[in-house]
From TrEMBL:
Source superkingdom: Bacteria
An individual GO BP term: recombinational repair
Organism: Streptomonospora litoralis
Name of this protein: DNA 3'-5' helicase
Enzyme class: isomerase
Residue intervals of the UvrD-like helicase ATP-binding domain: 245-492
Length: 674
């Protein structure tokens, strides 16, 4: 049965075509799909570098590029280009199967040929070569093939290797970059093995079997299932995450089963949420009917709205979508508790809570105790006073049916444990690093222990609240079932490298109690380095912000793709007011309308093309009132400082293309000094 596969490059180019050409592509593809087994609509190109390449006529001025292998019956739609570019592409590119990884690769042979004389000249002038210390055998073991080897041997600098990023076959280039960065061949192998769709390399690789190679390359090409599959794929062109998963993501999301709780970690933007949503789709595909078996949950209402729309995009079958509940944990907890009580619950606002706290005498007891520093021990008397006051306050709240969300979560967990009411077969949790222990107890109580009970996504480097949880202490054991993603799909390497320096160099402790660092975290995307700008005072800084936002808008960036964050609500509000004064419409970070403005805390989980962080000055970042005194409580101080660093890191890593960081007066000590 003939099969049609689509390359990521094809879909991303399709998404950028104007509507008229897109329509022509749709028609040509549907026609082709009806008859492609006969190869009828494909045209052979006489001077094609790769004899398996054909063109598909879209319009007078556009061509699709297709590989139609002699053996086998798979077709791959590689790209779609204006006529002349398509022919130039075909005259220059050759496709092959990586002999170590078995993945599909393309090399720009024409460009490599033009580049070689310059490399030869440079090599002649320099006796040392970049890979002198690596044997041919090791290079070959890492996938470098006979055609690439002579060119690789000419390289004298990393810069020349980088210049060949788009010419060399992808898997081979990754291996060379790993070696050039100082890794041993074994370490480099571990790095390139991340591109394997199975945990180990295939035993037998047939260099002519493109079908097998396509199947091993889910991040770049995917087979279409039937005419509806083709339609769905074209519709997904604006959300490539629906179709092309990095092999690391696919391995985690579509592993048939985990024998217990599993976890996915990874730096900001590495696609943890995407992996979690695909895991939900995989789990949903197991059920045909019945009440929802899967809960996809997270931290806040705004984030769960984003998750819901991702689930709607990914799971197109309504029956399967019904197997999934997307709700934040506060809502789940509220339903459990209010159901049992047969009545709604009241949540006092901050002012009411403060009054209650004061009436209970807790204020006094807490202030007395707090003077001693948060990490030092309380005297027995102080402990008693605090305890009495807390009891008093909670009793008053309970008498008035008043709750905090943490109390609701704890009570919901108790109810579910008592009644043995396991509501779901599977719970998938996103942004897990910041959940309070009471919420973890609730999660554990929502689902019985067993295979695929929990799937947890989180990044300890993005912990911005004080809830440091050890999953093992809550009876959730992810040992041996934790996987890490390392490739950023969001930010450019320039933004990542800068943002990682905001973090302390010491590793973070993961939910699995193991140390986590960002050593192998990188991005294939490139762009401008972040701009860090000084201003004499806040007024001038906000003028600078207006100028920057105007520049982005003038460059065609949509207002809703610009996010502005500040450490305090006051500075965020001042920024919003200033923009409004200049007739630049703005609204909240999560909902808009217009340019999105808010606090760093509200940036969690969001994403923007351009981000401006304002008020990154010594007085504000870290926020002094949130930091324990170093001499009174050194451990608390270090923890608070780390949390504040994480907060700045989270804000900066929301940016896809551009990052602008500004301060007035003295800079925040967290800003990297370049
Ligand atoms: N396989 C993929 N193909 C294309 N885009 C992807 C892929 N995986 C993730 N992305 C995109 O990368 C961005 C970041 O993904 P995602 O939100 O899943 O990352 P994350 O690890 O959860 O990030 P954070 O921890 O910062 O919240 C999103 O725009 C997402 O659509």
């Amino acid at each position: 049965m003939p099969q049609l596969a689509i390359d990521k490059d094809f879909l991303s180019r399709y998404a950028k075509l104007d509507k008229r050409i897109q329509k022509a592509v749709d028609d040509a593809l549907h026609k082709f799909a009806e008859v492609y087994y006969a190869g009828g609509h494909l045209e052979k190109v006489t001077d094609a570098r790769d004899p398996r390449v054909r063109t598909l006529r879209i319009t007078q001025g556009y061509r699709g590029v297709v590989i139609a292998p002699d053996a086998g019956d798979s077709f791959l739609l590689v790209t779609v280009l204006p006529h002349d570019e398509a022919y130039a592409y075909i005259r220059s590119r050759r496709f092959s199967v990586n002999h170590a990884l078995g993945v599909l690769e393309v090399r720009d042979e024409g460009a490599l040929e033009s580049f070689t004389p310059a490399l030869e000249e440079l090599a002649a002038a320099d006796s040392a070569r970049l890979f002198d210390h690596i044997s041919d055998a090791d290079l070959i073991r890492l996938g470098v093939d006979a055609e690439s080897l002579p060119i690789v041997r000419l390289l004298t600098s990393e810069a020349h290797l980088e210049a060949m990023a788009k010419m060399l076959p992808g898997g081979q280039y990754d291996a060379l970059v790993a070696l050039a960065s100082g890794m041993t061949p074994e370490e480099a192998w571990a790095e390139v093995a991340k591109n394997l769709v199975e945990e180990v390399a295939p035993d037998r690789i047939d260099p002519d079997d493109l079908t097998a190679a396509i199947r091993r390359s889910p991040g770049r090409a995917v087979f279409v299932e039937g005419p509806e599959g083709l339609q769905a794929m074209l519709e997904a062109a604006f959300d490539l995450w629906r179709v092309f998963l990095h092999p690391q993501q696919r391995r985690i999301a579509y592993r048939p089963s985990f024998n217990g709780p599993a976890m996915v970690t990874g730096g900001a933007g590495t696609g943890k949420t995407v992996a979690a949503v695909h895991r939900v789709a995989h789990l949903a595909s197991r059920y045909e009917s019945g009440p929802p078996q899967i809960l996809l949950t997270t931290f806040t209402k705004t984030l769960d709205a984003a998750l819901r729309s991702q689930v709607e995009l990914l799971i197109t079958d309504p029956a399967q979508r019904e197997r999934v509940d997307v709700r934040n944990l506060d809502r789940v907890a509220y339903e459990v508790v209010s159901n049992e009580r047969g009545a709604g619950l009241a949540f006092p606002d901050a002012r009411e809570l403060e009054a209650l706290w004061e009436e209970a005498g807790a204020e006094r007891a807490y202030v007395d105790a707090a003077r001693r520093g948060r990490g030092t021990r309380l005297s027995v008397d102080q402990k008693r006073a605090v305890w009495r006051a807390v009891l008093e306050a909670t009793e008053r709240m309970s008498a008035a049916n008043q709750w905090t969300f943490t109390q609701v979560a704890a009570t919901a967990a108790e109810i579910l444990e008592r009644t043995g009411d396991r509501r779901y077969e599977h719970v998938v949790v996103d942004e897990a690093q910041d959940l309070h222990p009471a919420k973890w107890r609730l999660i554990r109580a929502l689902v019985g222990e067993g295979p695929d009970d929990l799937f947890i996504a989180g990044d300890p480097h993005q912990r911005i609240y004080d809830h440091r949880v050890s999953l093992a202490s809550l009876g959730i054991n992810v040992r041996g079932r934790s996987r890490k993603l390392t490739v950023s799909y969001r930010s450019t390497q320039e933004i990542l490298s800068w943002a990682v320096r905001v973090l302390d160099s010491s590793p973070a402790t993961g939910l699995d109690d193991l140390e986590d660092n960002l050593d192998t975290y990188s991005s294939p995307l490139h762009g401008r380095r972040p701009a860090v700008r000084w201003f004499a005072d806040r007024g001038a800084e906000l003028d600078g912000l207006v100028e920057q936002v105007r520049e982005w808008l003038d460059d065609g960036v949509e207002a809703g793709s610009i996010g502005i964050a500040a450490r305090t609500r006051k500075i965020a509000e001042a920024a919003g007011e200033r923009l409004k004064d200049e007739a630049i419409g703005c609204g909240s970070l999560a909902r808009g309308p217009g340019v999105r403005v808010g606090t760093m805390h509200a940036m969690k989980g969001l994403e923007f093309r351009c981000v401006a962080v304002v008020g990154a000055d010594e007085e504000t970042v870290p926020r002094q009132s949130q930091i324990a005194e170093a001499d009174e409580d050194p451990a608390g101080h270090a923890r608070d400082m780390q949390r504040e660093r994480n907060l700045l890191f989270v804000s900066c890593t929301r940016a896809r293309d551009a990052l602008h960081v500004s301060y007035s007066g003295e800079p925040s000590p967290f800003l990297p000094v370049s």
